[in-house]
Amino acid sequence: MKLEVLEKEGFYHIYNRGINGCLIFENDENKKFFLKQFSKYLLGKISIFGYCLMDNHFHLIIRLNDEEKIVTQAFSNFFNSYVKAFNKEIDRTGSLFEKHFKRIKLKDEEYLKQLILYVHLNPKHHLDLKFEEYKYSSYQAFVSNKETKIEREEVLRLFGGLQNFVFCHNQKNDILTEKHTFE
Fold first, then answer.
1. How far apart are CA 111 and CA 115, in angstroms?
2. Domain assignments of the chain as residue spans, ordered by start
3. Helix (H, G, I), strand (E, B) or coil at 79
4. Cβ distance 135 to 28 under 8 Å?
5. Quick one: CA dihedral 165, 171, 173, 176, positive or negative?
6. C-alpha count within 13 angstroms, C-beta hemisphere, residue 36
7. Which CATH architecture fits 11-182?
8. Which of 30, 44, 143, 179 has its CA 20 to 30 Å from the CA of residue 38?
């Protein structure tokens, strides 16, 4: 599979999962450390439009603020730092993630909106958890007034405001719930 080339100012869905479906997060501390390292290595080089960390995979929605080589190296450093710490903590060796992180360039604003909904609803889809309460997604950062590193204002503008942002999430959640009920 040929990897999408990252371009400055481009929007991307970045995701990966554990090799052979293994866990990449064994506990909340792992998820907190992942987010801390993500900020350490990538903040400023990218803007964050959404994320969700599940036990065996993650999703990031970003825009590049820097050149491809700089951002790619920052991702490499970030993933290496996380894997080394994770492996040391649980006394394992070797690769944790599938070969390369996947990236899909987002073509338009509608795709971006749908992806934000998809990423935030991952806890519902995979674990049947309430997405609004899930701690390791960016959803709560959008609906709170707390300081955040997420591009809150830009995303809420994209959805036409906070009320519509919440409405769209609830509507998509209802569709998922209804679909799950009839399966």
1. 6
2. 11-182
3. helix
4. yes
5. negative
6. 9
7. 2-Layer Sandwich (3.30)
8. 143
Q: What is the pLDDT of residue 183?
A: 46
pLDDT along the chain (183 residues), means of 10: 84 96 96 98 98 97 97 96 96 91 94 97 82 95 95 97 96 77 46
pLDDT at 94: 92
**Structure confidence at residue 42 (pLDDT):** 98
Supply the pLDDT for residue 179.
61
Which DSSP state fits 63? E
Rounded to whole angstroms, the Cα distance separating 7 from 72 reads: 10
Q: How is residue 14 written in tokens?
A: 């970045």
Alpha carbons within 13 angstroms on the beta-carbon side of residue 94 total: 6
Instruction: Say if CB 61 and CB 119 are below 8 A apart.
Output: yes
Angle at 117 between CA 113 and CA 119, to 5 degrees: 115
Strand partners, 57: 17
Strands 11-17 and 57-64: antiparallel
The answer to whether the predicted template modeling score (pTM) of the entire model surpasses 0.90 is: yes
Given a contact cutoff of 8 angstroms between Cβ atoms, the answer to whether 112 and 49 are in contact is: yes
